[in-house]
Amino acid sequence: MTRRIALVEPLSVAxxxxxxxxxxxxxxxxxxxxxxxxxxxxxxxxxxxxxEVYVAEVAASRQEFARRFGATDVLxxxxxxxxxxxxxxxxxxxxxxxxxxxxxxxxxxxxxxxHAVRSKGTVVNVAIWEKEVPFNPNWLVFxxxxxxxxxxxxxxxxxxxxxxxxDGELPSLFFCxxxxxxxxxxx
Length: 187
Known about the structure:
Elements: H1 2-21, E1 28-32, H2 36-47, E2 52-56, H3 60-68, E3 73-75, H4 83-90, E4 99-102, H5 107-116, E5 122-125, H6 138-141, E6 146-149, H7 155-167, H8 172-180
Parallel strand pairs: 1-2, 1-4, 2-3, 4-5, 5-6
Helix pairs in contact: 1-2, 1-7, 4-5
């Protein structure tokens, strides 16, 4: 039972974040941070028919998980001279992704998320911040983009994940890999 709850919990957080984003099937998404929550967001987006999902992650093992879990492409922010330009060029003919999910929770990811999202797009903050970070509202104002913050999940998110796992919409076997890889094997 513990393993099932351990699996459903991060997927429920991701389900809640994707629901809050109002993303539609066929859209493009960009996830900053390929940890357990970022990978869960990837799985939920794909299960909901999002056509292109890009992930930015610095850790090699997490990059590999993102690839195995179906990311359209994985970008390494530490090797990119301009991460925002890189992702914008890949989405919507250079306009940027429809929705950006910040699952990294570092100042650089917040700024990148706001600069990468297309006009009238949405930035979803899934990360929990331990301290105050600089934020310039104009990063979003000039694009008329939205910023949505989410926390945890609701009962209906948990129930939806259980149903999706039971129906085979979410690939539970793949996601179990990230949950049970020893911590010292993760970058």
